[in-house]
Amino acid sequence: MSSDDEFDYGKDEQLRSREVTEGPDKAPHRAMFRAMGFDDEDFGSPMIGVPNPAADITPCNVHLDDVADAALEGVDETGGMPIEFGTITISDAISMGTEGMKASLISRELIADSVELVSFGERMDGLVTIGGCDKNMPGMMMAAIRTDLPSVFCYGGSIMPGEHEGREVTVQNLFEGVGAVADGEMSPDELDEMERNACPGAGSCGGMFTANTMASISEAIGFAPLGSASPPAEADSRYEVAREAGEIAVEAVEAGRKPSDFLSEASFENAIALQVAVGGSTNAVLHLLAMAAEAGVDLDIETFNEISARTPKIANLQPGGERVMNDLHEVGGVPVVLRELLEADLLHGDALTVTGETMAEAVARIDPPAIEDLDADFLHTVADPIHERGAIRILTGNLAPDGAVIKITGEDHLHHEGPVRIFEREEDAMAYVQEGNVESGDVIGIRNEGPRGGPGMREMLGVTSAVAGQGHAEDVALFTDGRFSGATRGFSIGHVAPEAAAGGPIAALEDGDTITIDIDDLELSVDLSDAEIEQRLADHDRPEPQYTTGVLAKYGRDFGSAANGAVTNPGVKDE
């Protein structure tokens, strides 16, 4: 399979795969490898693991066997010994609005755990981690950070948009269509027609939702080569990207280039700058905090405010806009945005990447077009932005002492004061909305959906989309200790911390309490004194865990606070 002269063996002694391939006492081990088609040449090569979450349960991952095959070819052709192995995935879109959505965030941890375990147990030298659906990306990058093996991230690519009545549509439009049907603004027949055309093939949801946000971040943070996030799932260029990832992984092993060598505070700040500039998912706040915790990088949730304050929003993509990832790809992809931010001194150009280049060197090599030279109405320059501030804001106050997260997709100066209607779970809130009870000016609070309380911190695209579909995206406020989907838009605040299950102030709320939300002042508060909140919490009986055995019970016990990434790794999580 591999050729010795294609690999620099100057660092042979560093290859831990030698523990299972070298010496007379490893004859039994080599026999096992020979049964799988490996030979003498492979035993002298670096062993590169290719964890693959391919599955027939989501279009995001249905094609990943083909992506993995291209990565395996890249490893083999560059002198490595490619070892593919599997891991799990959960379809966020299919589990959305059901009890099954509680498995989504848990899957991030299970992916990280399983890849770490296989890499450790089989003595691998490097990784090409592949991701399709939302939690695959952070899970794979967290695994690479934990193992600290030379690693490259490879995205499976996004789905092409569907077409309905002459306009591009995605699954976001369907979720909002459900609300429009309930409100009488869309007929069931039109929703049916949209359903049949919204998702035309393989790939992750097409807007700048969580999957595409995290794929874009993989470039900005240095885990993936520039230009790798945007090629569509079924394009030939997607498989060229995967082959390149395999080649880079072998080169990284040869150079001894590990995640700890290129991940830094500057890398994470670059990732946040990209996120807020393109209007990326609020979920990226959670995942970047988790990745930073795993990497030992001191990243505070307030850093998102600091970077949003200096970094304008310059891309108008779904869910706030109309364009999708493929539109960005057609004008040059993520490097176009990185170049604009770099030239405006909003990125750390000296941050290192997996290729060994600095960010500035990588952008110069790619040489993407400048935004002002493009005919792309959805991209703005830093000098003439869509919004002066970035899209992500962290709100604090007596209702969220440790923070809460909102993405600005429309009006930039949101302010609201009003009585709250509290729900103990997502289903009750969804029923309330679908029954037509929502009116302009309402505040909806959903609690006991946090990392521990859910457990699993469900995304609630169904609720937010139903509200948006009824025309209330900007005049009805929602907040929760759970999460909102990357496809959520409007006045939706998630990640309220501490969560209700941990005794956070959200547990003290009663129907009718006056809530103040002010985006300019970064405030989420309730009109109660500290003493009143403390008294109510003292009188409050926390609900018993819904799951007492099995995987949901275990992770419900182990999750840390959303303010620190909701990690479960005992070496890095908060108490």
Automatic annotation (TrEMBL):
PROSITE patterns: ILVD_EDD_1, ILVD_EDD_2. The modification N6-carboxylysine is found at residue 135. It comes from the Archaea. Residues 46-361 form the Dihydroxy-acid/6-phosphogluconate dehydratase N-terminal domain. GO terms for biological process: isoleucine biosynthetic process; L-valine biosynthetic process. Mg(2+) binds at residues 92, 134-135, 459. This is Dihydroxy-acid dehydratase. The lineage of its organism: Archaea, Methanobacteriati, Methanobacteriota, Stenosarchaea group, Halobacteria. Keywords: 2Fe-2S, Amino-acid biosynthesis, Branched-chain amino acid biosynthesis, Iron, Iron-sulfur, Lyase, Magnesium, Metal-binding. It holds the Pfam family ILVD_EDD_N. NCBIfam families: ilvD (TIGR00110), PRK00911.1 (NF002068). Pathway: Amino-acid biosynthesis; L-isoleucine biosynthesis; L-isoleucine from 2-oxobutanoate: step 3/4; Amino-acid biosynthesis; L-valine biosynthesis; L-valine from pyruvate: step 3/4. Residues 8-27 have a biased composition (Basic and acidic residues). GO terms for molecular function: 2 iron, 2 sulfur cluster binding; dihydroxy-acid dehydratase activity; magnesium ion binding. Binds 1 [2Fe-2S] cluster per subunit. This cluster acts as a Lewis acid cofactor. It comes from Natrinema altunense. Its EC number is 4.2.1.9. Residues 379-566 form the Dihydroxy-acid/6-phosphogluconate dehydratase C-terminal domain. The gene is ilvD. It catalyses: (2R)-2,3-dihydroxy-3-methylbutanoate = 3-methyl-2-oxobutanoate + H2O; (2R,3R)-2,3-dihydroxy-3-methylpentanoate = (S)-3-methyl-2-oxopentanoate + H2O. Functions in the biosynthesis of branched-chain amino acids. Catalyzes the dehydration of (2R,3R)-2,3-dihydroxy-3-methylpentanoate (2,3-dihydroxy-3-methylvalerate) into 2-oxo-3-methylpentanoate (2-oxo-3-methylvalerate) and of (2R)-2,3-dihydroxy-3-methylbutanoate (2,3-dihydroxyisovalerate) into 2-oxo-3-methylbutanoate (2-oxoisovalerate), the penultimate precursor to L-isoleucine and L-valine, respectively. [2Fe-2S] cluster binds at residue 60. Its cofactor is [2Fe-2S] cluster; Mg(2+).
